[in-house]
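pasting for the record
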Amino acid sequence: MGLYEFGDVVLTGLCRCIFRYKVEGLENIPKDENFIVCCNHRSNLDPPFLGVCLPFKICYMAKEELFKNKLFAKLITTLGAFPIKRGKHDIAALKTALSLIKQGKRVAIFPEGGRSHEEHLRKGKTGAALIAIKAGVNILPVGIDGKYRLFGRIRTRIGKPIDLSAYFGTRPDSNELKRITDEILMPEIGRLANMPPYEEYNKK
């Protein structure tokens, strides 16, 4: 048993003891094709909890600050994380994600680019749509609904894949990537997480 598998067993046991969580929509996970996972982000516990809820190994994009401590960096790298420079066009992170997808691995991205401390989603970044199109894979949207409190109720909802096949082999410009993110991806994540998207919330 590898470190990831061992950690998954331990975390699953802890989550079952601490939270009342339920996973919905497992039937929406494609069985014969690769994809990237996109999920909302409210807590530092989201990455490991997402790993507990999904029945496959995940590789994570994680902020580069987490890799400053060499021991911790080695641990999270072993568990599938790789660094990304937030707020910048990180070509190295893009290439790493594409390479992992090409190897058949599942990459998880939190398109908000950081944790939301409000009752609505943060504005989505276009990187997830760009990576999916470049890799020629669809997006599996996931929403985590609830807060990590002792015996708290949490629902993880897995939606149907967002079909981007019409864009495969093309080079969508920034406006098209923004449209996909703002009008398709983030509203679906918001629906699953029971949180309004940034654009919808700010229309009020």
